[in-house]
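Final report, Chapter 2: Outcomes

The project's central promise was a pipeline that accepts a single protein chain and returns its three-dimensional structure in a standardized token representation, suitable for archiving and comparison. That pipeline is now operational. To close this chapter, we reproduce one record exactly as it appears in the project archive, with the input sequence first and the structure output second.
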Amino acid sequence: MYNYSCNHPILRVVAILAAVMPLCIHPVWPQSNPATTGGLIAEALAPFESDFAEIRLDGKRQYLHRSGRVTVDKPEQYGAPICIAVKNGAYGAINRKGDVIADFDYDRIYYEYEDTEKTETQREYLYFLAVVQRAGKYGAVDTLGHVVAQPIYEELQPINGLVIAAQKSGKWGLLSLKDGRMVLPFEYDGLKEHYGLNGCIEVTVGKAIGLRSADGQRELIPPAYQSLRVLPLSTGAIITAKQDTRTRLLGTLGQIITEVDYDDLQAEGERIRVEKDGKRGWLTAQGTVMIPPAYDESSEWRAGRCVVSQGNMKGVINADGKIVLPCQYGEIRLVDPNGSVSADPVFIRTENAGKWGLFDINGQPILPMDYDDIRPAQAGTVGYIWAATDGKYGIFDSNGKELLPFGYPLPTDGYRPSVQGISPASIVALPDGDRIGLYDLEQRQWILPPEYEQIEWQLGAFIKATNRKGANEGYEVPISAYFTSDGTELIAPTEYLFADAVDTDRYVVKTLVQGYWKTELFDRSGKPLYTNKDWEFDAFRFNKLLVPDSVSIGQRRGHFQNGWLKISAEDNLFVDRSGREHRFDSLDYVGDFYNGRAIATKQVNQVDHIGMIDSAGNILLPLVYTDIDKLYDSDLLLVSKAGKAGLVDSNGKVIVEAQYDRIDRTARKDLFEVQRDGKKGIVDDKGRTILPLEYEEIQFHDTFFVVTAQGKKGFLTPDGQVLAPPQYEEVRLNNSYSGYFPALVQRGDHWTYIDPTDTGQSFHIIGKTKLGY
């Protein structure tokens, strides 16, 4: 109950604040309103957006800083260690703590900083300054309000985390970024960071350039050169220094390596590429000539090889400058075993007048310049070469020995016929026009001749090969044969063949008999193991309650699991690998096994009771549940018993007893919201209670919960610690990368701000209403 009987305005404010603010908040009075020592009463408050919140104070729009200590007329820049704002027409700066580090009496303020650019929310700053301007002069303060430079300079520019360059009377000097003391006198015509050398400082005297250390204390290179340029070699940087007509190579400490006479120098790995009169060559890092300038163009070096050109013709040289291939080719490409440029090259593809040839990396010929196209490729660890000319192709091994003679036509539309599934490593699909077959590169023979329109690999162990015949009103009949992975025929070409691998050495065939489907199980040799006239096998049917979403049954794993294959003719019928039937005692239904476990049910009073067994039939999870289901993106299963929900893992261990009306995942994978009798709480994936069942609503926000109890909202940590007890009618969180706080909250008929985190500020301001929606 508020007591407004006191007449003194300050006491009235204190009374209201005591009613609306949490007891744990201690007063820190706003710096910008010294007259209001008891806090502020505003007509209205808006939620924070990053560092500022709009408020209405005495009929005027103001902006409150996140510290609760400063109000301004207009924020200019924020969301950083320093906020820049305008008050009474002048600029000022505020740090994160709410300290006014630059008073509101400047014409302009802007940031200068350098950071590590980790992420938008995680940055480490080497320095962060507010550069202030007054009457055309510049100064700087750091985030603590320390004056780095008084506003007496014509220009100001931080160079690195150690020093700042300043101009006075037309000359430049250096100031310490730490305490503002002079590091270099004001006698230079220019000072700036030299970006190629870890923050070193480029100094200019007249038109001459030199280098100093990053702290400005040591001279590395005297100001005697027209230009300084870093060559970032892989063995370490060196500097090219131009002086009149001479070019010197210098070490990073200024030592002279050698003097050279070239028009241009560029870093290429451990080498220096040079140009002289339009010709390219290479030097060592010591300036020794490796390859004299003799080439018009060059590629990057790869595995000690470089493609070079003279005129319009290309060749290849090695790291010693020796000619691998002379410049007599129109096109050259260095390719890896797969024919691409993603790995170190082992082949050289060459072209002249539309014909391609192939050489090894040392320039030894593999295939002559006779082909319209040449493509090195790999199947597993086995390499081969595909070559084509005049619409036909052949296959060679990596040494150019013929594996498959020319004579096979390419597909008419340029696309190979369909091949599905994953094949063994050394087997490739090859076309014969619009038909396709399988070729074993290790055995150097066809497994299946190229006479099929479609091939499907099943578990890498069986092959279904299909052609289509006839067209009755546009409908074609598929005719398929079935083979082992070595090409042994198991089933002759059959119309509408339904054959599927259920393991790497077992397959099933489904046939239609008198209007009903029956399925038969075979071993790899084609020997029948089991048949059931009521069994209709479906390759896509598999109970995946215990299977991770990343596992594909039928594509990479077979339906035979843990020695059992489920027979769908009955709910509790399996066969072992020899085809013997098995039913698990006293159970009405058993699902597919995975990792030695299966879902099982038993009917009691016409109600299914669900649990889990292992492959030997032992009970892992008692059959007492009425439902079991997956939770999205969780390793746990949701179970129900007597209308109550619980959690179990895929091994059958009970994590949370079935005692709740509802269980849902939160944004954190290890936390679950539980509900009972209209109250909500939180448990973790170990079954521990994090929040008791005391709340009407729970919302998780990365690092804290907003909870509602008896219509009031409060804040708790993910481990259940109270940040602020439920006492607010409404909560509006800060909406920015800067975090969720300060938050706008309503208590009674007034609004205020809170930041309940350990590092949070206290707020002593109330509003009569809320701005915005």
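Archive annotation: The helical segments are 9-20.
This record, like all others produced under the grant, will remain available to the consortium after the project formally closes.
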